[in-house]
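Per-residue structure
===
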Amino acid sequence: MRTAARMGLGAVIATVWPMVLMSAEANPSHDLVAPKHYPTIQAAAEAAEPGDRIPVRPGVHEEQAVIDKYVSITGSEARKTTILAPRTLVAGEDGGTSIVEIHSAASAAPAQLVVSGPGSGACSDGALGSGVRVLRGARLDLGHARVTHITGTTAAPCPHSAVAAFVGDLPTRTGSVPIHDTEISDYQGSDVTVLNDRSSATIVDSTVTGHPRLSTDGIGFVAGAVVQDNQRVGNHIGIYAGRRIRRPAGTHQLVPDPSP
């Protein structure tokens, strides 16, 4: 009886194991090349399954990209592959306009890319709200990249000035952005703005160069920050904060606390 039972169990394993292997092989990660396999980065992102890779061929890709799943997006080189703000910007999850938006607890890792404006128009008329926007529990790992020309067509001191990277939302929508080995330049408002005390951002080994007349250099935080080993050029006001700052372990350059 025991022998028969063992034989029966062995038969079940022998039947199920190939099915497990087939299931694993049926769902490998894929490369969805834009514009080879899909005409736009957005089309590739919509077709992708979590874990897929989106290699982007050299050139200027005039579009907005909205990511709601875990994918990696890789250009050929940071100075040869550009996601450029289109002439007409469509509002995102929070009603603002951005070139790249990550939401719905997604995780994206753009690398070797340029995210570039300007927007079409100034201030409320065709304004570009942010270069990259991260909210609703999402994470953007931005490395070996550039975020530049985040302004209106005519840079102006607008009430809602363009921000290079805008993270989180109030009161509860969180986001996180590790930024490393990246150039952020010619932004109209601030470098990085982080809302919500559970959101976070780090900027490490990067170069930050503001607009010569308008930018505040700023890192506007309601959350904690790690800011270290960066170069800051041509910025006016320096790092500033909206409310009390938590100092994470390993912070080299503490963001000042303006609260009384």
